[in-house]
């Protein structure tokens, strides 16, 4: 079976993050984001793709800051309230019943009840005709110890980080499940040594 090339988003299970920002006037904003990823491993930068008409984009441009919050799948209702196109003067935390999680390094607050908070500063914007790519640097990363061990490994069966599969009729919310299979990073390298690991 073939699909139209424009349906390419339907073949990827996507993460769902909540991106929180604050405007220059101090109005809090939160929006779900699926086009978002760390850039490679183990660096500190992330990239998100934004349509041009987004309060999130305006706030990031104005303040140079944003927080990537990872919601558990139980937060789906609040996430969908945040997806509504409220005007910029509306505090979307209030609309969705969300509480601020105080950030340490930036002014933009995170969101209580999330599993992890990546405070980011704007590094570069790559502007295209219809969308923009925002590259950010994580300047503070915090996780809820209820769902992560001392090494920062997520117990994702307990945490239920929200993800989604986009279909022709709408979104299906999912969360990852252990397949029983795993691999060491070193398996990717001949001789079992990771190229990026520090030299002895
Ligand atoms: C699950 C989900 C993922 C989304 N991902 C994106 C995205 O990656 N980029 C984007 O521009 N909009 C995305 N949206 C749409 C925005 O969240 C939505 O337009 C929101 O109202 C934007 O809010 P803002 O104008 O306050 O920034 C997504 C919506 C949902 C429900």
CATH domain fold name? Pnp Oxidase, Chain A
- CATH arch. level architecture: Roll
Topology as a string of helices (H) and strands (E): EEEEEHEHHEEEEHEE
- How are the strands of the biggest sheet laid out side by side? 3-2-6-9-10-5-4
**In total, how many beta strands?**
12
Main sheet attributes: strand count, strand direction, barrel closure: 7 strands, antiparallel
Number of helices: 4
Output the CATH homologous superfamily: Electron Transport, Fmn-binding Protein, Chain A
Low-confidence stretches: none
The whole-angstrom Rg is 18 Å
Strand content: 25-35%
CATH top level? Mainly Beta
Shape type: globular
* Euclidean distance between termini CA atoms: 51 Å
Which structural class do you get from the secondary structure elements? mainly beta
What does this structure look like?
The protein is mainly beta. The protein has one domain (8-186): Roll (Pnp Oxidase, Chain A), CATH 2.30.110. The protein has 4 helices and 12 strands. The chain has helices at 55-63, 76-82, 92-96, 156-159, and strands at 14-15, 17-22, 28-33, 36-38, 45-51, 65-70, 100-101, 110-111, 116-127, 131-143, 163-166, 171-174. It has a 7-stranded antiparallel beta sheet with strand order 3-2-6-9-10-5-4. The chain has a 3-stranded antiparallel beta sheet with strand order 1-11-12, with no helix packed on it. β4 and β5 (45-51) form a beta hairpin. The structure holds flavin mononucleotide. Flavin mononucleotide is lined by residues 16, 29, 31-35, 49-51, 54-56, 83-85, 164, 171. Pfam families: Flavin_Reduct. Residues 12-157 form the Flavin reductase like domain.
């Amino acid at each position: 079976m073939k699909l139209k090339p424009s349906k390419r988003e339907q073949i990827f299970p996507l993460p769902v993050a909540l991106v929180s920002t604050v405007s220059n006037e101090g109005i809090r904003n939160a929006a779900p984001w699926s086009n978002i990823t760390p850039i490679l491993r183990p660096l500190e930068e992330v990239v998100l793709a934004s349509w041009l008409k987004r309060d999130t984009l305006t706030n990031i441009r104005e303040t140079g800051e944003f927080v990537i919050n990872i919601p558990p799948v139980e937060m789906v209702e609040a996430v969908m309230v945040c997806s509504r196109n409220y005007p910029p003067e509306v505090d979307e935390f209030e609309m969705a019943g969300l509480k601020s999680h105080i950030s340490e390094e930036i002014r933009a607050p995170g969101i209580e009840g999330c599993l992890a908070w990546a405070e980011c500063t704007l590094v570069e914007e790559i502007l295209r005709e219809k969308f923009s790519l925002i590259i950010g640097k994580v300047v503070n990363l915090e996780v809820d110890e209820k769902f992560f061990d001392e090494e920062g490994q997520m117990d994702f069966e307990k945490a239920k980080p929200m993800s989604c599969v986009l279909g022709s009729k709408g979104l299906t919310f999912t969360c990852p499940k252990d397949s029983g299979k795993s691999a060491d990073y070193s398996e990717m390298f001949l001789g079992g040594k990771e190229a990026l690991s520090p030299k002895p």
